[in-house]
Amino acid sequence: MPPLPQWAHARAVIREVGLRDGLQSIATVLPTDQKIEWIRAAHEAGQREIEVGSFVPARLLPQLADTAELVEYAKTLPDLFVSVLVPNLKGAERALEAQADLMLVPLSASEAHSLANLRKTPEEVVAEVARMRAARDASGAKTLIEGGIGTAFGCTLQGRVEPAQVLRCMQSLLDAGADRVSLADTVGYANPAAVRALFEAAREIAAERLWCAHFHDTRGLALANVYAALEAGLTRFDATLGGIGGCPHAPGASGNAASEDLAFMLADMDIDTGIEIERLLALRARVGQWLAGETLHGTLWRAGLPKTFRSASRSTNLYT
Amino acid sequence: MPPLPQWAHARAVIREVGLRDGLQSIATVLPTDQKIEWIRAAHEAGQREIEVGSFVPARLLPQLADTAELVEYAKTLPDLFVSVLVPNLKGAERALEAQADLMLVPLSASEAHSLANLRKTPEEVVAEVARMRAARDASGAKTLIEGGIGTAFGCTLQGRVEPAQVLRCMQSLLDAGADRVSLADTVGYANPAAVRALFEAAREIAAERLWCAHFHDTRGLALANVYAALEAGLTRFDATLGGIGGCPHAPGASGNAASEDLAFMLADMDIDTGIEIERLLALRARVGQWLAGETLHGTLWRAGLPKTFRSASRSTNLYT
What we know:
- The structure is a homodimer.
- Chain A is α/β, with parallel strands linked by helices.
- Chain A has one domain (13-314): TIM Barrel.
- Chain A has helices spanning 18-22, 32-44, 67-74, 89-98, 111-118, 122-139, 163-176, 192-206, 222-231, 259-268, 277-290, 300-303, and strands at 13-16, 49-54, 81-85, 102-108, 144-150, 180-185, 210-215, 236-239.
- Chain A has an eight-stranded parallel beta sheet with strand order 1-8-7-6-5-4-3-2.
- The model of chain A is unreliable at 312-320 (pLDDT under 50).
- The interface between A and B is large, with 52 and 52 residues.
């Protein structure tokens, strides 16, 4: 057999973003108690990074109005790294106050998407990140700032997004004081070749500050894209339990990479995520009941684990 | 940007196996007229390799009883490479008589699966391939013999299948006179790391006689596995329109890689398949009507082509 690739036997992190990217896209408003139960059970299943919500005005996203309470709860769980999304300085101040471990600031590399979704140009988002960095440093909080570059592989509004533009945004975010940067295929336009090329180029710029890859499964390529990103050296991937979420510009399409399917793919390739897949599948079933009427995605829940799959118990918790 | 990988801008072939691997797995018996229309429209959409059926006794697979007629029709289409599956010498004789371009002989690397499915050990299949080769050479026919090694990534009956056993089967098939060899993940157990490792090892043995990769989407990894096989140098992939097919040992699971999704992924990576995806989607809709009540799979039919996708018209037909 040929030598194993460099990433074999490595560790990887699945960042659960179902409570944010998932719940913000669906009609059901999940009660805080159930969200807390979700976070608790996800932690028990071995998940150690969770984006629990978003500090946006409650009138815009009533589904996420309880984010401060969720951060407070999540921070009580041992070794859980708690992220939130913040769209602006006001949100960042709430994240700092809540002592979130990380705040993700979305920036759209597509001008059209940026104006439509964030009502700001990419340059204005970069300027806001500089203000967040100043606020963070002044506060003494340890909250990391992640610049998340969306529509990195194309945009349903403007179409093509040039890789050079994505990389310019990345450099600007780093220059403005972002501690981490990420790339997101917001609308499900990425393919494995594009993923590998863009993430390799991004790594040249950001090195170890290149933090996370975020894929949607709109055209069935989320897991192929994760594999391509792994090859480019990424070891952290956003995903949502049951693949919930989606994009308002792609009606009927699948949502995010499904956490349980991704956990299986990685574990089956001997990449340790610390996740006990059976527990994650049990949690998926419960969340599915809470979200009755909403469409869940993914394949593993139906097909089951292969006979050849070594039980998750072999996975030592990667944080302890 | 980093240099493009070696396979960029290459060509690849999607071998349509829906008429065989797809139809043999479902209850509906498609009339010969509709199969002929399927073959005609697939050819019109740019498909140039089609497995039209299987020369097995009609009492075993009544769905495929018209294979000889389909070969005869398919051979009339310009530049269409016509394959059939043959389980034994008797089937091979029919394939030679029909002047199929290629006959695929299935061999299960798993002893348990081999005995359950083929009622032969792998060694007995190899011996049968030697007899087929003798018959082919004696007949003067140009029909190529492909040894298709199934359960190459594991088996629902016996569990693990050792890569060394798969490679031994491959060497034996070549020694017995197979012109081509292929690897199939019959039950949807493969992951991209395993695919890359096994296909790279297979390439060391078979070089350009390593012909095709066959993946099922049972756990959502068919396209990720195709990408990994591409990296290992493969340029020919089995797929079924609408992802029809499946495995009797994985009830409810998805079937094969969906031809239209695979055609999109490859085209979007600038790998030319000669297929006009819009036509393939139109054909999928018709076949879906013919197979009313059966489950079709795939994502592209629902999500549509991305705005950034360059029209299929750029794809020059790769055979003319």
